[in-house]
Amino acid sequence: MTVTFPLTEKRDAEALLNHLTLYKLTYPGNCVVSLKAHVAQVSSSHTTALGTARTAW
Known about the structure:
The protein is of the alpha+beta class and 57 residues long.
């Protein structure tokens, strides 16, 4: 499953990685993170954790 996370000045890539850790998603452990200018695409086979992390973001 791949989910897009919007990035802002307050919610940057570092904040996203910290947020994903709260849901037991770690890079490069069990998810892949691809950064673009204003979004990050996160892929993982742990769909429930990823969906919950996206909702809470």
